């Protein structure tokens, strides 16, 4: 992408690679990736996504970081590529709502629809509470929901305490 327009800053992505070795399971190389591309011609509300991760965790909106996943390396996951479109309703940092529709194409297609509501309560400069409710439907598993509540305390410029459930 070229230029200095706002659409340059709207696209983001990450890639995560890990090598797991155990005497019991042997060696495995895993790759996770996520790309989000804003579509500015659609009022900066629509984005496309491509994600390689645990498909069920992505649909249920319960993804964990690498450090958490590395503690449970023997848990079976349904990793694969998911792609789709998302739409974000007008909102602010304090309150957001968005919707996603996507799927996996292949031998066993997986289609999902997801609606998310998030709310942040800023108590003061050092304390913030974050709430997120996700309601989803998947063609093989049906309906479900995920609720999360997180708390951040900024102890110093270099120390953050984070609790999540």
Blueprint of the fold:
Elements: H1 6-10, E1 12-22, E2 26-38, E3 46-54, H2 55-60, H3 66-70, E4 79-88, E5 95-104, E6 110-124, E7 127-138, E8 142-156, E9 159-164
Antiparallel strand pairs: 1-2, 2-3, 3-4, 4-5, 5-6, 6-7, 7-8, 8-9
Q: Quick recap of the structure?
A:
The chain is mainly beta. It is 10% helix and 61% strand.
Task: Kindly describe this structure.
This protein is mostly beta strands and 165 residues long. The protein is built from 3 helices and 9 strands. Strands 1-2-3-4-5-6-7-8-9 form a 9-stranded antiparallel sheet. The N and C termini lie far apart (38 Å). Mean pLDDT is 82; it is low at 1-8 and 66-74.
What are the defining features of this structure?
about 160 residues; mainly beta; 9-stranded antiparallel sheet; 3 helices; disordered N terminus
Percent in strands = over 45%
Task: Supply Rg.
Answer: 18 Å
- Order of strands, main sheet, comes to 1-2-3-4-5-6-7-8-9
Determine the N-to-C terminus distance.
Answer: 38 Å
- The quaternary structure here is single chain
Largest sheet: 9 strands, antiparallel
What's the tally of helices?
A: 3
Compute the average pLDDT: 82
Helicity, in percent?
Answer: under 10%
Question: Tell me, what's the shape?
Answer: globular
Spans with pLDDT under 50 lasting ≥5 residues? 1-8, 66-74
Order of helices and strands: HEEEHHEEEEEE
User: How many DSSP-defined strands?
Assistant: 9
Q: Pairing-aware structural class of the strands and helices? A: mainly beta
């Amino acid at each position: 992408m070229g230029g200095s327009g706002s659409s340059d800053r709207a696209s983001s992505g990450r890639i995560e690679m890990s090598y797991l070795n155990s005497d019991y399971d042997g060696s495995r190389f895993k790759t996770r990736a996520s790309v989000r591309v804003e579509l500015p011609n659609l009022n900066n509300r629509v984005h496309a996504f491509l994600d390689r991760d645990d498909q069920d965790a992505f649909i249920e909106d319960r993804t964990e970081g690498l450090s958490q996943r590395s503690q449970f390396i023997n848990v079976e996951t349904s990793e694969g590529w998911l792609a789709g479109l998302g739409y974000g309703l007008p909102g602010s940092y304090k309150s957001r709502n968005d919707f996603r529709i996507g799927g996996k194409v292949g031998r066993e297609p997986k289609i999902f629809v997801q609606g998310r509501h998030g709310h942040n309560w800023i108590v003061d400069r050092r304390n913030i509470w974050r709430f997120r409710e996700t309601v989803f439907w998947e063609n093989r598993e049906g309906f479900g929901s995920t609720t999360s509540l997180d708390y951040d305390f900024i102890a110093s410029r270099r120390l953050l305490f984070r609790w999540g459930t």
